[in-house]
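Please, structure for the following, as tokens.
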Amino acid sequence: MFKGRFLRGAAAVCGALFFTATGLRVLASCASYGLPFTDLGSTAFCAQIAEAYFSGLTNGTSATTFSPTATVNRTQMAAFVTRTLDQSLARGGRRAALRQWWNSTPHYDQGLGLTTVGNTPQRIQSDGVDVWTPNNADASVSRVRASDGKVLDTWTGATHAIDVLIAMNKIFVAGNTSPNGSLYEIDPSQPGTTVTTLISTLGNDVALAFDGNFIWTANFDGSVSKITPGAWTFTTASTGFSQPGGILFDGSNIWVTDQGDNKLKKLNSDGSIALSVNVGTTPGDPLYDGHNIWVSNFGDNSLTVVRASDGVVLKTFSSGNGNQNGLNEPTGEAFDGQRILVPNFGASTVSLFKAADLSAIGVFPIGMANPNSACSDGTNFWVSFRLSNKIGKY
């Protein structure tokens, strides 16, 4: 149990004290803050109580009482802590600073908010300023300025470009060719030209990740590769893999989704499998939100949330569980610091979820058919439309 009703505000440790002209420190009058509570007396925490009340963190115990010495049980404390987290995320984000509070689309059906890129855009990524789009059918990569959607540069020569990785001041591109996949490099400090080929003997690579030292590829033909930057040599692990389709690094481990056996797999440093977790059918791109891994399952229209620390499945959004939230061939999800956005390839919609409490926010029309990948630039989501050769700001 927790004592002290001021904990309902922010568990403050410093008082709202004022200095008079004589330099003497006096306790503030809570009435001067416009608070409705009549039972606060002389306290050093008027400012903290006022912030808690005016932000909606607490309403007190009645219209006129705060009950400053009453106990706070664990249920109430959980509510206060999560409300505090939500408020800090909402007020402290770039979207708040830019006054962008909406969750609706910019009317893609009217051609607004769209940028035409290359042929068949795939897994888009952002460096926080620009959006990088690998265009599979015309072997190109587009650089799009996030602030206004202008195409800044185009690089060519990336055969079957399918994913990009932003790391080490470079842009790396996966070339999804078979039987030998490729890794390409772009120098973003230079104008668009032909990509540099680093490796052309990988497996059928479809996704990229970086762990701070090595680049990893998920190879759909049944392996993962670990690449040493600079030397551009690699080792490949194939035992226990069927059809790796997505890959990520969570700050500690590399994780791979395997479409061949419907599992999410945590890897050891040599690429061998340390842990396998059952997810849905045909898992695609995994996404890490700082705590949990979200896996969109294209084959059964579901979304699995796995705790990264121990591989425990926390929640599955599916029709069978009664909380599908509009998922329809979901793929290529993105995280903006608060929300998870999942494009629904089988419908002209996106599904939104709240990362903090694993709740469904809703499903929203997006005005364009077959959204297939998403990313966040730190302020807005971007969604690619593979069949329309466009990407759009959401």
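Helices lie at 46-54, 74-92, 94-97. The longest strand covers residues 161-167.
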